[in-house]
Amino acid sequence: MRRRINRKTIGLFMFLALFSLSLTPQLSWAEAVINVVNSDGPGEGFNDVSAPDADSANGGNDGATLGEQRLKAFQYAADIWGKLVDSAVPIEIDAQMDELMCSDTSAVLGAAGPWSVHRDFTHP
């Protein structure tokens, strides 16, 4: 069941990123570097070293392991958002692929929130 949840999470994340890009024209002034920081432990999530399914590379994701494919999918979506966000400061996103609640009638596909927010500071 865990692999199914993670695939759905990746699929939903990619769909939302691509859908938002198709609705919003690229802003000529917007450009931000968004880096996905792997916060998973050894052998889990983005560090899962199991072989990917044979048909999973059909979308152009050439990751050698399931974890590498997950990380590439997240970074691809972050790159799309980077074209829509204006920031001179690189944005880092701590990300994990953890098992979330799932039942026969409902499921949590993803969760997010900030660690910190900074604003109105003077630049050195």
Automatic annotation (TrEMBL):
Signal peptide start and end residues: 1-30
Keyword terms of this UniProt record: Signal
Keyword Signal applies: yes
Organism: Candidatus Entotheonella gemina
Residue ranges of the region described as Disordered: 44-63
Tree of life domain: Bacteria
Annotated protein name in UniProt: Imelysin-like domain-containing protein
